[in-house]
Amino acid sequence: MSAVSASDAVSNGTASNDEAILLRSDSDGIATLTLNRPKQYNALSTGLMSEVQAALDDLREDHSVKVAILEASGKGFCAGHDLKEMRAGDGRTYFEAVFKQCSRMMLAITRLPQPVIAKVHGIATAAGCQLVATCDLAVASNDAHFATPGVNIGLFCSTPMVALSRAVGRKTAMEMLLTGEGIDAATAERMGLINRAVPPGELDRITLEYAEKIASKSPLTLKIGKEAFYRQIEMDLEQAYNYASEVMTTNMLARDAEEGIDAFIEKRDPKWTGE
């Protein structure tokens, strides 16, 4: 976990890192958000989801940040929704609000201009697995474990299903959802849920390498490309090509595209302006 100063802590009304349920640390264009409910395996309480949403809203307007890393403290990445909190909830209105809040948070990750990398250790289950599937890239330690186990407690992982079914093949997603059985990091890598499974001691370094490589690119190009990726993937083939052609035309007219092409021709490093 990245070192964070007290001024970087994000919390529900507190200034102490020990009490903050979400931490943020920025360095060289990379923002690291750390889920910080270790005793609860970083379960997504309504409070934590609110803090993540607020942090994502801040990142959207922060042009100094080119890429974000989402990590977690303690023994696991995220155990899903806070079931104790949910059992204390009362009725349909409450549950609708919780799941809509979670869906807004997941959509905010997808719609964030900056790419988001999940750095996963320990468990990532239910909505925690959804969080991994939602992030643009994911790196996990070899000992990480992924599951959508809701079926085991009578609660099908329907909202995690949305992200999972878009990240992996249908049969694989249905196997996880219907059996509730977990998979290890090597399997998650083979099925495309994560990009790489790495030794625990290499997790920080390799995740940072991904982030630094992405941060070296034009922020405008990253924004254009990420938005286009998620829009075209839901289109039919012809519509996707028409849309992508328009995107490339707009991109080609950008100053960063001109600079990048000129730098390539002149065999020098480009100087991005984000325009």
Automatic annotation (TrEMBL):
Keywords: Fatty acid metabolism, Lipid metabolism, Lyase, Transit peptide. Gene3D superfamilies: 2-enoyl-CoA Hydratase, Chain A, domain 1, Lyase 2-enoyl-coa Hydratase, Chain A, domain 2. GO terms for biological process: fatty acid metabolic process. One of its GO terms (molecular function) is hydro-lyase activity. Coiled coil: none annotated. It holds the Pfam family ECH_1. Transmembrane segments: none annotated. Belongs to the enoyl-CoA hydratase/isomerase family. May play a role in fatty acid biosynthesis and insulin sensitivity. This is Enoyl-CoA hydratase domain-containing protein 3, mitochondrial. It comes from Denitrobaculum tricleocarpae.
